[in-house]
Batch of 3 targets.
Target 1
Amino acid sequence: MHIDEIILSALRQVTSYTLLSKASVFKKNIFMTQRRNFNTDKVVRMNASFPQAVITDNYIFLSGTPGLDLVSGKVISDDFEEQTRQCFANIKTILEEAGSSMEKIVKTTIFMVAGNDFSVINKIYSEFFPENAPARSAPQVMPFPAGILISVECIALL
């Protein structure tokens, strides 16, 4: 074996090792390594079969959160604006109890029964996000049970 072949073989081994090392670092930084369910008694749970949120390494994923009244456990009212405001108030409480905040939300999904309520959503959105609003999508859905007109889920940084 010539010296050129030895050097070339060594370079291939080092390059392969470097690529593998970078790939494992990439996977470690990108993929979730831990997760845990999170619930707070300060917000009414929609259903005991799923958590209010799931916390991972750097993120918190909130389940759909309707505008439920904290005292009665029922929808706050039949008014879309009041339900929307209560949704975001409930989200704020869950996030703060988990160690995050509204400012750390990166994405919301707003599920609404009526597809023509964007002026109300925009109004409430600007109240809760006066600067740097998160990305959002707002699909129209089939009616929810119990008079729920809106449910909001989100992803936030911890």
Target 2
Amino acid sequence: MNFGLRNVEKMSFWNLKTLKLDEFRPGILSKLESGSNLTMALMEIAPNKEGTAHDHPFDQCGIVIEGEIEISVGEEKKLLKPIETYFIPAGTKHNWKTSVLSAKILDIVAK
């Protein structure tokens, strides 16, 4: 995901229960903070959405906060539920998909 850069001084602490999310693209609400080496994003993804398989030159990881999301990393695929995590090594093709439930995830990428 391409998050872009923002001023890291805007928000040092998040309350995931009350954080206001903005539209990132149709069906995805998000809030992100980005520093010089790391980006953290909270995303709420509507049901029946699917990403496009891709890779990038940095590591990515995250945790499911609410709902369910299927994550594919290389040849592995798993349906993740709340408090389950994923780790995507740099250069590994990956994708995601929601089904009948939406998903709220906290995603972190090293840049």
Target 3
Amino acid sequence: MKYLRPMVCCSTAVFILATSSPLLAADAKVPVYKLPTRGAPGGRVGGGTRGDKNVFVLSVLAPDHSGLTTSEQPSLYWFISNSTSLPIELTVIDSKGIKPLLETKLPAPAKAGIQRVRLADYNIRLAPGVAYRWFVAVVPEADRRSKDILAGGAIERVDVPSDLKAKMATTNKSELFALYADAGMWYDAVAAISEMIDAAPQDQALRKQRAALLSQVGLSAIND
């Protein structure tokens, strides 16, 4: 992905997912994401495309503001509604950098659904208090990058709040995702529930809990 070109195509590739779906609204186990007081605006953008051979929705699992993480090397999650043979690229930039912090090709997803990128796999570390943006791009035509289908989000690393650290010490691992969500740590909450799903892929209750979490930030169309 060329550094500046995705910014140009954002205006033509925006795809807004459905925002209303009170999944499990009456279930006491549903995690409640609380908007962080420091969450900056200008978060998620999403892309979609239609064509004879490639029809899919592309989105990142990010809120519509700068999501928070306590991890130095967090995992980033994104979604594609159908598998594709087209090239896929990941770019991570910071607010002060001239060049991307990371610009790499991603392996083609084995199947449609939610995908994971571990920044640790690329030796990328986020500095505390720095605003980062990250983008996933599907590249239909390598020589016409304005045709890229783009999805992106914003992320900022913060120190673990003292009250959250105290609660983590006494919280069961299976409940950490809800604790992170309540503390406004979006990326940590998504990673925690997604890791539980990876460990128990047949557990539909976990998938419903993740879907309920995603619906709270306008991603109710993602139900994987």
